[in-house]
Specification:
By secondary structure, the protein is of the alpha+beta class. It contains five helices and five strands, in the order ααββββααβα.
């Protein structure tokens, strides 16, 4: 998996669905920056403008690091577009998701659900909970098993 950008979203979802938590953790340790960059680079392409046409929001993702700290990425939804930034601005996000790396990869691959991760305390949400509940619907989600059809 040298060039993650060559793996279509549904195939990526299949790989994650078949991987153990330990394998995902290993991949995130060895290639964390590359994987996060590729994941966030794809979000504007997966954005469903029609689902978020009236939304003007700043969404922050904080992916925790095993040694402490976190990687912070922001999605700005405005004017029917989604832009991504690895260097969050100083503006307070409308909603912030804090999640571990394995759960994050499983969430974006469609293997885990946001509500389940939240209920079991594996994802923390701060800010506008109504917006948080809608975020998943703003993006086309990959489907594990779809690439083998």
């Amino acid at each position: 998996m040298n060039d993650v950008s060559m793996i279509p979203p549904d195939q990526f979802a299949d790989l994650i669905a078949q991987a153990s938590d330990e394998q995902i953790a290993e991949g995130m340790t060895a290639n964390r920056g590359l994987l996060l960059q590729e994941i966030f680079n794809r979000w504007p392409d997966q954005f469903r403008a029609e689902a978020a046409r009236d939304v003007n929001a700043l969404i922050e993702w904080r992916i925790t690091r095993p040694e402490g700290g976190e990687d912070r990425w922001q999605l700005r939804l405005a004017g029917g577009a989604c832009t991504v930034s690895q260097d969050p601005d100083d503006k307070e996000p409308d909603v912030t998701f804090t999640i571990g790396p394995v759960d994050f990869v499983k969430l974006i691959a469609g293997v885990e659900s946001g509500p389940k991760l939240f209920v079991f305390g594996r994802m923390k949400i701060r800010g506008n909970l109504m917006l948080a509940a809608r975020v998943q619907g703003f993006f086309r989600a990959p489907s594990p098993g779809a690439s083998s059809s």
